[in-house]
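Quick start: read one record
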Amino acid sequence: MNEKLSLTELQLIIKDSLYLALPGLYWVAAEISEIKENYNGHCYLELVEKHPDEVSIRSRVKAVVWSSRYRFIKSFFENSAGESLREGLRILIRVKIEYHEIYGLSLVINDIDPAFTIGEVALKRQQILKRLGEEGVITMNRDLEFPILPQRIAVISSANAAGYTDFMNHLKGNSFGYVFYTSLFETPMQGKEMESGIINAMERISVHPGEFDLAVIIRGGGSQTDLSWFDNYNVAFYVTQFPIPVITGIGHDKDLSVTDIVAHKSLKTPTAVADFLIECMISAENNLMDLGSEIADKSRLMIEVSKRRIETARSRILPVARNLLLIYRNTINRKKEILESHAKNSLGLLINRVAGFENSLKILDPANVLKRGYSITSINGKIVKECNVLKKDDIIDTRFSDGSINSKVL
């Protein structure tokens, strides 16, 4: 072929060929990769099909829903599926193939089957739950022991969310005066950044698990689409591995997300979470009151029993004590008599001995000795006991009972 075609002519041939080969409408299943509405009300999408690994893209095409049709399709789909069209959602669309010389190949969407999406969402949820079940982690957070006094709360939410404000106002303004200590770990609660944001917040909390009694994941009200962001394997897995109980209150009325299912407890709204925590404190206070009453009752019973035992012991001990006292008194009296008798005998013996000593002393008294005819000789004041101590011309003194004389030794 030597015929030369302009680019426009080639484009027109492609266009005509496509229209001839694919003239009708086709039902196509695809995933929304990008979606945006322009100021004219037209909706522009990028559709993809992924490989089984759910990561790499197998095919990609642009699509459009013109404003005249988009208003009806969007309203019908959201009312039927409970979802809004968003990135990451798999849809079944009825399309016409269109080719434009400048914009290339695209699909013009004529209709969307909400039943397909409902089934896809449910299937995805079941697949995630099945995987968590096979990994043996689906009940790990629910199996954690719930704190008796849940006062230290780690809050995962957006600071600007109305649900967070409602939660804090309800919790702090409780009429019972209970004190709660909260720390906000801020993160987006929908969209692509939600997964990484929640995981990052949970990682920051888990670094210091001893500082918190539990964690709550809360957001304000929203569409069913917002709830679908919580049908996420990675977020759910992190919840199952979390070291403290997790409570969810993400503003849904009907279905439970996967995150709700694996959490320790799921409640509908942030306010319901606050009510639950307040109820926990009321229950703890009532339990303490009941325990106090039970302790008081048991203490009174123990005291009464002890009193009865003491009274019984007293009634038994008194006669025994009286008998023992009488026995000991008689014994003491007998011993007293024996002791008095021994004391008198010992005293008599001592008196006799003293009298004997007194007589001996009287007999040995020098005055009495002299009266019996004896004399005492001394020299220089020393008594002479032997004669050989005397020398010639010594002057000696001799003492008699009635006087004394001096003599000279010849």
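The domain at 152-283 is CATH 3.40.50.2300 (Rossmann fold).
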